[in-house]
Amino acid sequence: MSLYIKELTEKNNIEVTSHFFENGLDALEGLKEHKGNPGKLPDLILLDINMPIMNGWQFLEEYRKIKKDLIKNTVIYLISSSNNIVDINRAKEYQEEVKDYFMKPVSMEDITRIFLN
C-alpha cells in the first residue's frame, strides 16, 4: 500500500494490515503460495495498472487462471493515473474480478468506499 493511502487510513482510524508488492508477478506468486490458507490471503487488492515486470492487465489475466484454486475470494480495485477511456472500458472486461476503478490520486472518499464498504 502506498504511503499516501497508508496515511489516509491511519488519519481516519481505518485499521489495515497491508503487504506491498513491487510488481504483479510477485503479488501473483504470493497468492499462489498461500492459495489454501485463508488467513494469509488478502481481503482486497489495490492493483495499479502500470507496474514493472507484470502490469495490472497481465496480473488480471493470470489471476483469472488461478482464482478457482484460491480458498478465499479477494476483492480487487484498480488504481490508476490513466483516465484513458480505453483503460476504463478494459477494466469493465474484468467485472468478475474488479469491483471498481479509481483514479490517482485516491481521495479520502475513495478510501472510505474501498475499506468501509
From TrEMBL:
Domain Response regulatory: 1-117
Keyword Aminoacyl-tRNA synthetase: no
SMART domains according to UniProt: REC
Keyword ATP-binding: no
Domain of life, per lineage: Bacteria
Alphabetical GO biological process terms: phosphorelay signal transduction system
Keyword line: Phosphoprotein
Modified residues (4-aspartylphosphate): 48
Cross-referenced PANTHER family: RESPONSE REGULATOR RCP1, RESPONSE REGULATOR RCP1-RELATED
Name of the protein described by the UniProt record: Response regulatory domain-containing protein
Native species: Flavobacterium kingsejongi
